Amino acid sequence: MQFNGVVKSKLSGVGTSIFAVMSQLANEQKAINLAQGFPNFMCNKDLISLVNKFMNKGFNQYAPMPGLLSLREQIAIKTEKLYSAVYNPETEITITPGGTLAIYAVIEALVMPGDEVIIIEPCYDSYSPSVRLAGGVAKFARLQFPKFTIDWNEVKKLVTFKTKMIIINTPHNPTGTILTASDMLKLEKIVENSDIVVMSDEVYEHIIFDGVEHQSVCRFPKLAERSVVISSFGKTYHTTGWKMGYFLAPENLTREIRKAYQFMAFAANTPIQHALAEYIKNEDEYLNLPAFYQEKRDYFKKLLKGSKFKLLPCSGSYFQCVGYEKISDLSDVEFAKKITLENKVATIPISVFYHNASDNKVLRLCFAKDNETLEKSAEALTQL
Ligand code: GLN
Q: Which of 1, 117, 152, 340 has its CA 20 to 30 A from that of 142?
């Protein structure tokens, strides 16, 4: 079927998200999917039992618009314990169907037409289209290759009287790098005495390695008071398909964001919120996550040691970036397609995370997989 009228696009030049494209290709090709970021192992059965319990008990109707209060209270307790930051569960914590929707709601609510938003590339692919949909203008800084660190002078130079927001992300998708306390202090300096809001995407907060502590913006009171923090239950509990996330923000920002959010989703899944409100009390689940994923990272690295890929440092997230210069001259998009078809391993080319498709010949591999999958994929990649 075709609509006969004129279809004007609000997102010209934007295609289908690379995650959908590569997952579909992986399925068609029966390739191992190291592309889209999701675990291929089970979440904890107790969590499933809890969701079941609440479904059977009849908790199947709309949750309160900002989320179940008991879950928000638990998030407040957790955030204070981990980051010494106090958020009011009634007015400063909001549960959403996934981190991506939270990001969209924040941008849609706060960015006015013509406002500028500073985005640091490579970055998660929803940021820039969300800014465009809000009528905002994205201004791009870039992480410095190959270490993928932020040049804060470059960020500072992009700030104008039109800058409404700066988006940061730590641990970082797609590069696996993390921001340090010194990064946060530099950011603090740039935004002091301005009206700039910081949106800090911290969905991988519990996937950080080598004993390093996650530097949440929450830890920096001067930043926290102008920041919206995005978090995700999917990453922490191996349940990305449940689409559950939340955001933390000062009261007056929250009020404005909820105004928009209520007309996007109204509320998140009820029985899962009840289940999480109980399950989140089990601190070990997230306190053990760094060790759990560090073991996977180290194992995957070991398996790839004999390959021609260059392994870039991975300090957090469940993504290992690899350079393939010694293997092929193809563009990263072409190379990713080729190895999906020929070697049956799907990956993500990093150039798709830049507005101008910068190609450093790097692929992103998701190692949130059981050992057998890591072994099979490494075996195929080592043959290249
Ligand atoms: N965050 C995950 C990734 O980067 C998946 C996102 C998505 O599928 N939209 O792969």
A: 340
Q: What pLDDT, on a 0 to 100 scale, did the predictor assign at position 198?
A: 99
Residue nearest to atom 5 of ligand 1 (CA): 37
Which atom of ligand 1 lies closest to the CA of 36?
Answer: 10
Q: Determine the CATH number of domain 62-285.
A: 3.40.640.10
Per-residue confidence (pLDDT) for residue 18, from 0 to 100: 94
Q: Is the CB of 19 under 6 A from ligand 1?
A: yes
Per-residue tokens: 93? 């914590």
Residue with tokens 């998660």: 124
The reported pLDDT for the residue numbered 235 is: 98
Which of 14, 18, 19 has most ligand 1 atoms within 8 Å of CB, for mutation?
19
**Spacing, Cα 19 to ligand 1 middle (Å):** 6
Find the helix or strand (DSSP H, E) in which 95 lies: strand 93-96
DSSP secondary structure, 159-228, as one string: --TTEEEEEEESS-TTT-----HHHHHHHHHHHTTS-PEEEEE-TTTT-B-TTPPP--GGGSHHHHTTEE
Q: Which fold, 18-43+288-381? A: Aspartate Aminotransferase, domain 1 (3.90.1150)
299 lines ligand 1 (CB under 6 A): no
